[in-house]
Design goal:
The protein is mainly β and 98 residues long. 0% of the residues lie in helices and 55% in strands. Strands 3, 6, 7, 8 and 9 form a 5-stranded antiparallel β-sheet that branches. Strand 8 and strand 9 form a beta hairpin. The protein is globular.
């Protein structure tokens, strides 16, 4: 898993690349506050090596909770900036700081 951030010098957005190894998965998405937890908006594309990757423009100067959705199962990002307890689900969410 990895999250790479590329901040724009001219716009208040960050180009964030999410990559996750999931060779046996059929469908992977990143869902979070930045896309209203919508799996269609956060769909990741499958690469030849079996990992999934997506690049998203996300507004800066904010923190966003997120998770990966792998074939219907939620998973946190190991390289998240921090984790935040979510009372709704009773678990922690990954957090990205931009």
């Amino acid at each position: 898993m990895s999250v790479k951030k590329q901040f724009s010098k001219t716009k208040p957005v960050c180009k964030v690349t999410f990559t996750i190894a999931a060779k046996d998965a059929a469908e992977v998405a990143v869902v979070g506050d930045f896309n209203n937890w919508n799996k269609e908006e956060g769909a990741l594309g499958k690469l030849k090596n079996g990992s999934f990757k997506g690049v998203f423009d996300i507004p800066t100067n904010a923190s966003y909770e997120f998770k990966y959705l792998i074939d219907g199962v939620y998973e946190n990002e190991e390289e998240a900036d921090r984790y935040q307890f979510n009372g709704f689900s009773g678990t922690e969410n990954s957090v990205i700081e931009l």
